[in-house]
Write the structure tokens for this entry.
Amino acid sequence: MRSYGQKCALAKALDVIGDRWTLLIVRELMIRDGCRYTDLRNGLPGIATNLLAERLSDMERAGLVMREAAPPPVATTLFHLTPRGKELEPVMAALGRWGAPLLAENTDEDVFCDHWVVLPLRLYVRDKFPGEHPLRIGLHAGGELVTIETVGDGSVAVRSGRAADPDATIEGTPPLILALLTGKTSLANARAKGLQYKGDVKVLRRFGAN
């Protein structure tokens, strides 16, 4: 890990997180806490396996990542963000918002992994009526199962995995699901593009969708 050698908080931060792939490893661990090495490699298309191992070692030394030997039946090493690593979440959110307009410039060569939808769902989906009863929605976003739960303050909790006893289920492409739950498209338009929705439409109105 190279240093800028500057007595500046921003430079010191970049000494730790400025290397290529480092923040994308943080992204993966924010989405799936408790990642196997293969999960990380699959979620980082284009990274060399030796470089991933090197970055993980650097991040461990910097106190951002810790590893856990999971017991059987998992019986493998799992990687987690440390409390210090989790403090990067608002930084990642700000970078995500800043970079969102750049998505219009993507090319056909750009790769998208379905589980990446978890972070924009956390950033942009909001419960418009937080005083009402809690809701749980199950998503089948491309090949990824995702659970969204209201938490009572207007924000939502989003995690990978199947939803237990959901109030509604939505199946479709990640961009279409995101557009629906942020009010950028209607249920009718989304259905016309192949989205499937099961549940009371009142559930969608909690998120500004219609």
